[in-house]
């Protein structure tokens, strides 16, 4: 392979991957992934973010479901497109990239430029997607008011109706008491990720809590 050094080029290993949430057939793809696999995927993503934040001192900057690929039979999750804001120098270009790609993942408290806290917020939204099999930024139909995924999840999480709280989980994986217990723990973590910035845990704390969750 020939690469001219004056160009900024991303080179990815070409192997079979499954995109976690893609356009069109995403719901079918995710339906085939068990709760145990989804928990492992969430933990893999958290570990990747820990590496970026702690080892590389670098926020991902554009975390979203379509930047997660699953490798091999074990569906090992890897992150793509991280740190692109460092390659796009003008601030206006960074803002354009983020507004185009992160609809539904953007932290309402932070400005456009990426930081660790915005990664944690987006990670919380990713967990919500994995639990509900709905896409971030989509307007949830059938609601009296137009709400996106985050508002919809918060509404049901705060509901006093335990049956209603359970019904918004993906039915393909919420088929036992143990599964519901695991999903409630993941839901609690996702809600911690979208807390106000001064209350929001860092990704290391989230990863530690994830490591204690198991599927029987």
Structural description of this entry:
There is one protein chain. With 216 residues, this protein is mainly α. The chain has one domain: Transferase(Phosphotransferase), domain 1. 44% of the residues lie in helices and 5% in strands. The protein contains eight helices and three strands, in the order E-H-H-E-E-H-H-H-H-H-H. A three-stranded antiparallel β-sheet has the order 1-2-3. A hairpin with a 4-residue loop joins strand 2 and strand 3. The protein starts with 16 loop residues before the first strand and ends in a 5-residue tail after the last helix. 33% of the residues are buried. About 6% of the residues have low confidence.
List its salient traits.
Transferase(Phosphotransferase), domain 1; ATP binding; signal; Protein kinase domain-containing protein; Kinase-like_dom_sf
Structural class: mainly alpha
Give the helix proportion (percent range). Answer: 40-55%
CATH homologous group name: Transferase(Phosphotransferase) domain 1
- H/E element string? EHHEEHHHHHH
| Beta-strand proportion | 5-15%
CATH second-level architecture: Orthogonal Bundle
The first-level CATH class name: Mainly Alpha
Q: What's the gyration radius in Å?
A: 17 Å
Mean pLDDT: 79
Quaternary organisation: single chain
The overall number of domains is 1
Shape, principal axes of CA atoms: globular
What is the CATH third-level topology name?
Transferase(Phosphotransferase), domain 1
Gap from first CA to last CA: 47 Å
Number of helices: 8
Give a quick summary of the entry:
GO terms for molecular function: ATP binding; protein kinase activity. The protein has helices at residues 26-31, 35-55, 91-101, 116-132, 149-157, 162-167, 177-193, 203-211; strands at 17-19, 68-71, 76-79. The chain is mainly alpha-helical and 216 residues long.
